[in-house]
Amino acid sequence: MKAPALYWHFKDKQALLDEMATEMMRRMAEDFPAAPAADWREVVTGAMRAFRGHLLRYRDGAKVFSGTHDTDLSYAAPLEAFLRTLIESGFTPDAAARAERLAAYPLAAAAGEEMFAGHDRGFEAGLAAVVAGVGATLVTAGE
User: Which residues of the chain have pLDDT under 70?
Assistant: First the structure.
């Protein structure tokens, strides 16, 4: 397939990447468990392993996925169930930039800002969690 044929269906490269990323998310959402585990740690661990697995299935999967916008809401219902497990475990999502678009999916909407805009804050929180976890492992091993 050549570029002119692609651009018959997509207005530009960004639109093509958006649709590719959305299709990747659709496939990832199919793998979300119908009834997530009760323990949020199992839910997050399983989801992140699955997410990584999906990104690795595609050449430059993470690169394609980053910086794109969803073209539909096909992922929202499974994401809602995933987030509900976290909320019921005591997590509280930040206010979302996409609340209007995801009005029928309040948890997905509330998590949108945190997942897609708060990168620096998320990195720092993740780094602190990893360092704390490594520290706990070292303390346990040294006892």
Answer: 1-3, 33-38, 92-103, 109-110, 112-119, 139-143
Q: Which two tokens stand for residue 34?
A: 């119908």
Check residue 42 and give its pLDDT.
80
Tokens 């979300």 -> residue: 32
